């Protein structure tokens, strides 16, 4: 690739190191010996320890990705020339669908990616397979699909993240949907709904037994910083409130006011549209101990507020056992938009694991880090293609 300045031995962020170690990571029994020495098998050992890797570096330490406009000419053939016919691609961007020239915002840098180029190359090279991270956008927006490009390509294997738990662990989670009236049309709209729940409290699903629907209504005032003026309307229903930046109006105060009005549950609209910032803190309202509490992204909350003002909004859901066969809540899901192809194609453990880690500038090493995401699941599946 004509970007040799990007090819260095440093990985300050650790993303590439974790991906590579998921496949081939192997710690020597004797760190003073050369790499031909015996290896130690532990929780951080890769699926194919000491396998040889072909690595292409097209990023810089700020996690910006450089332009690969023609992956069938500039990228995939590099691996093939090195004798590597299985690629693990833990990179991409949300909301682009599938097009001849999809313009991708990757970590604030515009990248032009020809998605069909993946398909052209893989069709012409049937002995070659590309596994691509589906993305960590499962909770994003009020969407019909959250699969990231280039996992939306047709001939790649899109890898989602599953849970690292056997069915025997009997870990229970929930799956939710929102059914609402579409403003201006009167039609109904059913969408997947992914709140961040406080699992030390009852789940929203506890209100939705036997397929029942629960109406979602707005608090008045929407901040719920004071006793609600619409207690008769919210009684027995799921109440939507807005997070505020006031020391005298935290989740404890909001929970007290919702519970005082007879609300059955509280959903908080976060300041942020970033899933990493969904933190219910302080997490435990003392005066509303039985109140289910959850938080949603601002973009999702704004849509629900609009739908609530124009018509009815209902919450549906049920409990599910979280095991190896269940897509993790953060993992992107399909079908693809607009053509409706099933994605992800496969899931692999991605809700947390132990991998080789890096720390500090200049690539200084620490032994291991915990990590989760479809970026973690993809190399695990790549190294175990069965």
Automatic annotation (TrEMBL):
Pfam families to which the protein is assigned, alphabetical: PA (PF02225), Peptidase_S8 (PF00082)
Gene Ontology biological-process annotations: proteolysis
An MF annotation (GO) of this entry: serine-type endopeptidase activity
Domain PA: 215-304
Domain Peptidase S8/S53 as annotated: residue spans: 9-380
Alphabetized InterPro entries for the sequence: PA_domain, Peptidase_S8/S53_dom, Peptidase_S8/S53_dom_sf, Peptidase_S8/S53_subtilisin, Peptidase_S8_His-AS, Peptidase_S8_Ser-AS
Keywords carried by this UniProt record: Hydrolase, Protease, Serine protease
Family under the similarity heading: Belongs to the peptidase S8 family.
PANTHER family given in the database record: PEPTIDASE S8 FAMILY WITH PROTEASE-ASSOCIATED DOMAIN, SUBTILISIN-RELATED
Protein name, UniProt field: Peptidase S8/S53 domain-containing protein
Organism from which the protein derives: Volvox carteri f. nagariensis
